[in-house]
Design a protein that fits this description.
This protein is mostly helical. The chain folds into 2 domains: 77 residues, no CATH class; 31 residues, no CATH class. The chain contains 4 helices and 2 strands, in the order H-H-H-E-E-H. It has a two-stranded antiparallel ribbon. The radius of gyration is 19 Å and the shape is extended. InterPro entries: OSBP_sf (IPR037239), Oxysterol-bd (IPR000648). It holds the Pfam family Oxysterol_BP.
């Protein structure tokens, strides 16, 4: 019903971006620019998107500077390490893949998101 007004998306597709309680503060459904856009506040959403992108660029620049400093000092630099996934080479395809390493569901049960970075 009303599919022509919903870009002919399925019910599932229409609800994928619905907010959910008790998720990690890094959940993409919590992006403030996205929430503003969905409220029809386009100008505010664009300003917020610019702010988020600049914040991401600043974090990348900081990591790059730390990597250079570590190299100059002859130290190893690990860089960004995902919280709940690890990169591995697939034994069959030889492709680099991400494997869930645990921790998310435990953090969600406890509502302990202290290990999450402030990305928004």
């Amino acid at each position: 019903e009303n599919a022509e007004n919903m870009y002919f998306f399925s019910d599932l597709a229409l609800t994928l971006n619905e907010p959910e309680e008790r998720v990690a503060p890094t959940d993409s459904r919590l992006r403030p620019d996205q929430r503003l856009m969905e409220s029809g506040r386009w100008d505010e959403a664009n300003v917020e998107k610019q702010r988020l992108e600049e914040k991401q660029r600043a974090v990348r620049r900081q990591r790059e500077a730390e990597a250079v400093e570590a190299l100059e000092e002859g130290k190893d630099y690990e860089g960004y390490i995902p919280l709940w996934f690890e990169r591995k080479v697939d034994a069959v395809t030889g492709e680099l893949i991400c494997i869930y390493k645990g921790g998310y569901w435990e953090a969600k049960d406890k509502q302990d998101w202290s290990s999450c970075p402030d990305i928004f």
